[in-house]
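Request: Show me your protein:
***
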Amino acid sequence: MNDQLLSARDLKVSFDLPGGRQAQAVAGVNLDIAPGEIVALAGESGCGKSTLARTMLALEDATDGSITFGGKSLPKSTKKLRAFRKQVQLVLQDPTGALNPRHTVYDAVAEGLRIHGIEGSNEYDQVISALSQAGLRPPEQYLNRYPYELSGGQRQRVVIAGALALDPQLIIADEPVASLDASVRGEILALFQRLRDDFGLGALVVTHDLGLAWNIADRIAVMYLGRIVEQGPVEQVLLDPQHPYTRALVSVLPDSPVGDPQVLTGEAPDASQIPSGCRFHPRCPLVASGKAAEAGIEEKCRTQDLAVLDADPRNWQSACHYSAQFGRDEVRGTAEPVADSLG
């Protein structure tokens, strides 16, 4: 769609392994992020979500497919990529590791400005403005502090301020609150929402926490073994998930709208050994319970691969043979959505 800011089309990322094997970290993904939109990319550890995010930031090379920013393909030259990365900033999980312990807060926030050649007479004002936008007020009190003098939440705000100093259009945040205390997480999530509402800043938030996605995102894309298996508006997907994997993830949340917890058996398969057919079928409760066999689609689940979901943000989509054949009511079963279950 022409109004999308950052887009991936048929994206694939593979890594060579010993013995001539290949790991398919991203095995075909279509994803869009619109201006001023927060998209959550959710899934278990090892599903490929961080690799996808890094590839969309041009920190990893795509094996196949394309990435566009503002409708234009990402440039190849380092100079032009620098201009792109000024517009799309990365916020890492560990603020302590992201900050140089020998740099003051002022130097940490000004670092991006200097790298991009924006230093000068306005540098001080830009640092002050970025710290204020990130919620460190009054900003003058923080300029000469070092990371060890700050709390975890304050350090994360400094990292975010360093990104905001460059006036980006989009932030890619990889588990932005995973290392923070529960009491601080809500403040950082509220900050992302305020940046969206007040400044039109878009974000791709990588997370394994569906509760976080519920509280912060406009849309959610659920990833499993290199593919997005369900995506759509966050309230629809999390209140009435259609893919068995999404339902299992939602089922273990407090006051889950999908009924009793569903514990998935085994680990996610190795990315170098993608199962035939639906990549989720070895762990799928519908297959394990015999429900897929009763419906006459077990063989299809085991042998027929599913098409890559398209990127249309208006669609609620699920990559599941069962839901495709029998529809929403059959997948849902007897569980009915409860409007405030995840709030």
User: Anything to note?
Assistant: Residues 182-199 form the longest helix (18 residues).
